[in-house]
Structures are given as structure tokens and as C-alpha cells.
Amino acid sequence: HGFDPAAIGLDGFGKGEGYLQRQLRRWSENYHLSATEEIAEMDRLIGWLPDHLPRSQRSAIIHGDYRLDNLILAPDGPDIRAVLDWELATIGDPFADLVYHLMTWVMPRSDTGAGTGSLQGVDLAALGLPSLEEHAADYAKQAGLAALPALEPYLAYNFFRLAAILQGIVGRVRDGTASNDNAVAMANQVRPLAQAGWFWAQKAKP
After folding, report:
1. Helix (H, G, I), strand (E, B) or coil at 78
2. Per residue in 110-153, pLDDT tens?
């Protein structure tokens, strides 16, 4: 997020302006095409998000799937040795990237995980991990920002996006165009993710 795309030859890597709106259109369409059941919270989010998406304050290189699950950590300290799965990387809203990462702290837990790790119910202090608020504040400090925008609309958007991504995988398995041993578990996670998204939408300020 701290790199100037043009300064490192990546100004054509993506179109930052309108990133959130394009993502919403893309994943709404994908969700409708791959839906296997009616989920009221997804329908509510698709109706709510167009008028409540945060206004992007800047553009940067973003990973697109930046979460603890995609990091390789050093075995002897809190250092990141590698960041995996860059296929969704582009130029976009860095706060969307940050809050996608922060979702891990409030992710609905499941028996299978279904591709979504969670820190819900974990003793963060015992593990030496910061709280969501502390982690977000540290990002703001490292980025030289006085404050971060409201997280609730970004959480609503990102939970919707992840639910749509999982539903897309389930839909491709249904249509015979992909195989995934965790498809059933993923399908079972779409509703909880949508419900979490709607929860944060309701907590967002008008």
C-alpha cells in the first residue's frame, strides 16, 4: 500500500477509480449466476451496498485476498516470510484490503473452516496477538494516517464479497466446471458470511 504504482512501473496494473463499485457489480452478478439457495441477507446487502459503499480516499496496489491464511510466518518470530495467492491483486482501495484482513478477527467460526480462518473466541493476549482495534490503529500509524475511515461499511462489503466468492466456487462445482472437495462446507458458510455482512451494514452510520 505504501508504493506509488507509477513509480515502480505498475500504473497500468489496474484502474483504481471506481474499484469498489466495479467489485460490487462483478460479485453481485457472479452470486446471482451461481446461487443455489435464497439467502435474504445477500439480497439485502446487494440492495444496500450501492448507496453505502465507502468513498475511496486513495488508490494503491492491493493484494485482494490478504488474510492470515495466505501468509507464511517465520517459525521463530512475528515476521512474514511470504505472501501467497496474488491472483486478485490490482490497483484499488487499500482500506478494502486492510478490512478484508481484519475480518479474521470477527469471522464466523465453522467446524470445517471452509477456507475462512477465524480468531473469534481465541485468547488473543495469550497468543501475543493484538485486538482488531489495536491492529487497525497500528496500520494507521505505520501508514502515517491520522485516522482510518469507518470500518463497518468495509466489513459489510467484504463479508458480502467473500460470501459471493465462495458461492461462485460452489456454483462452478454444481455446473461441473470445477472440482473442490470442500464445496459442501463452502456452501454452508455462505449464509453465515452474508449474515455477518448484514450485521455490519446495520451497525454502519447512515
Report:
1. coil
2. 765 545 688 988 999 998 899 999 999 999 999 999 989 999 99
d(CA 27, CA 35): 11
What CA–CA distance (Å, rounded) separates 1 from 128?
25
Q: What is the dihedral of CA 13, 73, 114, 110, to 10 degrees?
A: -130
Whole-angstrom Cα distance, residue 35 to residue 44? 15
Question: Exposure of 88 by Cβ count < 10 A (0-12 exposed, 13-18 middle, 19+ buried)?
Answer: middle
Q: How far is CA 123 from CA 72, 129, 191, 198, in A?
A: 21, 9, 26, 26
Is residue 196 within 8 Å of residue 64, measured between CB atoms? no
Partners of 60 in the β-ladder: 92
3-state secondary structure of 53: coil
Is-contact 67 117, C-beta < 8 A?
yes
